[in-house]
Specification:
3-stranded mixed beta sheet; single chain; 4-stranded mixed beta sheet; elongated
């Protein structure tokens, strides 16, 4: 009995060792290319994302109603933090002077392997000239079945959101930008 218990313990340890040796892959929403063009001193003050996807692992859709947590595919941080820092990077960092404040509510952050990545947001912008607006941006980018393609599609969606925010932050702009 003692030998059996040791054999089971060794087998369990080998299984745990083998399972833990699967490498994790880390991904970011921050694109490798720096921000170009006009930046408008915009500070991202708050981002919220649906709790189903706000985790360090990538979450993908499976079928019509399923979600799968990819245990070896991770964001660099919880999705809300990754999204906020990537969006701030796309908008350029706030510098001295008056800031335009941005709050983003992510309503959908869908990852559908072999089809697309989609992003639906409602965002609120308050410019230094006291112009405040609430806008909606919905974007979708095609992606193949690879994780790299899905992450790149989410990066493209975030870039489109940043472009819409920059357009609304322009002095003299009093309306939400047309849908990208």
């Amino acid at each position: 009995m003692h030998r059996l218990r040791n054999a089971c313990g060794a087998g369990l340890l080998a299984c745990l060792w083998g399972c833990s040796s699967v490498p994790n892959n880390y991904h970011t929403l921050v694109p490798s290319e720096p921000v170009r063009g006009d930046t408008r001193n915009i500070q991202v003050v708050r981002v919220s994302v649906p709790p189903q996807v706000d985790r360090p692992q990538l979450v993908v859709r499976q079928g019509q109603s399923g979600l799968v947590i990819l245990e070896t595919e991770w964001w660099g941080a919880n999705l809300v933090d990754e999204f906020k820092s990537a969006l701030q990077d796309q908008l350029g960092g706030p510098t001295a002077g008056p800031w335009t404040l941005l709050r983003v509510e992510v309503q959908r952050f869908d990852t559908v392997p072999g089809r697309y990545a989609s992003l639906e947001t409602v965002w609120r912008l308050r410019r230094p000239d006291d112009v405040a607006m609430t806008c909606r941006t919905s974007v979708q980018t095609a992606a193949d079945n690879s994780i790299a393609s899905l992450v790149n599609a989410h990066q493209a969606n975030l870039r489109k959101l940043a472009e819409a925010v920059r357009a609304a932050a322009q002095p003299g702009s009093g309306a939400c930008p047309a849908r990208p």
